[in-house]
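Standup, Tuesday
Yesterday: got the pipeline producing structure tokens again.
Today: sanity-check two examples.
Blockers: none.

Example 1:
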Amino acid sequence: MTQSRTVKFYPHAKFTLPIIFSSLIVVFLLPAYGQTQTGLKKIRLALPTKTVSFLAFYVAHHKGFYKDEGVELEPIIMQPALASTAVLTGDIDYNGAVTGVIGAAVRDRPMKAVLFTVARPLQYLMSKKEIKEPRELKGKKIAGSSPGGTVTFLTVLVLKRLGLDPERDVSLNPMGGTGASRLAALESGVVDAVILESPDNIAAQQRGFHELIFFGDLIEFPQNGFGTSEKKIRENPDEILKMVRATLRGLMFIWDKKNHDQVLEIIMKEMRPINAAMAKESLGQVMRVITKDGSVKLESIQVLIDLVRENTKVTRPVPVGQVTDFSFLEKAQRELGLR
């Protein structure tokens, strides 16, 4: 049996990218990479946060699927837009927030998404317990994600679909930091509602707050997976195929119910300090949104593209094929018997 591996984050390692980080960005970088003593190639994957929506990566890591491909995976917590810049400079290999990849590609930066692990947003609008209906948000303060972040854009879209004007009816305050920090803002009364991912939404419910909206019920929108630079696609296609194949094996492992006890153990290790009950609920929630084979509907990708275009004032049309490359996914699917 493959020994379980815990994803490690190194907060003090040197990073060479010459960018001034804002106070809202927290980056945990790892040592310089290359070939390890075991002969594995170190690959840096940027993730925007540590939540259960990235479960496919954690499972593939713990079960040794990346190592099976000769890869020593190094996850790094990094804001999606910054991660895309780091991918283009070569300081990071892959951006796990495909919203950041597609956002960069829409703005004519040479990047493409190659795989999707989540088909719908796993975000929840949690409110004070006295707010029972979405219409009761009128005149209230809502804490979104980082300024200009995709979750903030999504919140605007959700509010509009609920018949609320995000500029007049509510005060939407983009807020950086973790889900725990946004939950703390809700507890302190600074805001009336917050956007949280699993398992932070479960913690909020346990503290008496109310789940108003599950974003995935209203929007089909691919958030997670990974993408890379067109340069890497041209120069290192074998590496990309290995990354795609290992991540797909992670998805396949999650979908096999006989593996769920092992998946729950991984959730508890990576999402500490949650208990078994919270882990089980988180798994049930993520099963509502993860893909089975790394594919999503093309029209849902177009929703993301158009959302980015609207918020970045890009007027020209951008087709799905301009921001994606599914050749690696299709090949890996065939090799793994998924198509």
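Example 2:
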Amino acid sequence: MNDLQYSESVVVASAPESLYDLVADVTRTGEWSPVCKACWWDEGDGPRVGAWFTGRNEMPGRTWETRSQVVAAEPGREFAWAVGGAWVRWGYTFTPVDGGTQVTESWEFLPAGITRFHDRYGDEAAAEIADRLQAARSGIPETLAALKKSAEAG
């Protein structure tokens, strides 16, 4: 497997700090994501490095939950988490530009996640990983478009 990461960007007419606040409130993720329909902080935690949250994902014929750990929480700059603590890294960066903020959403399959998929799926691991990459490639632009619409609506 070569290309195990993907990212896209969009310019949003909003301040980096405001966009960070939207994204770091994981309880709002379901408003934007085509797959992750709900998130909640575990044990009443919040957006800080080391905090854990649970997300419920839904696709046709499949619903599952994952636990993720916040790995970056820099207000106005970056918010990111690792699914399972080390399997897949999702993140957002916020860069001031003329007209607002460039928001970049990124996804990366990490070595521990690759190992986990090989252990779990055996000969089907490469196909399962490819499916996750395709989901990121289609989901990231949808998520960014929905985030932009929400942020610019006020």
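Quick observation on example 2: The radius of gyration is 15 Å. The mean pLDDT is 94.
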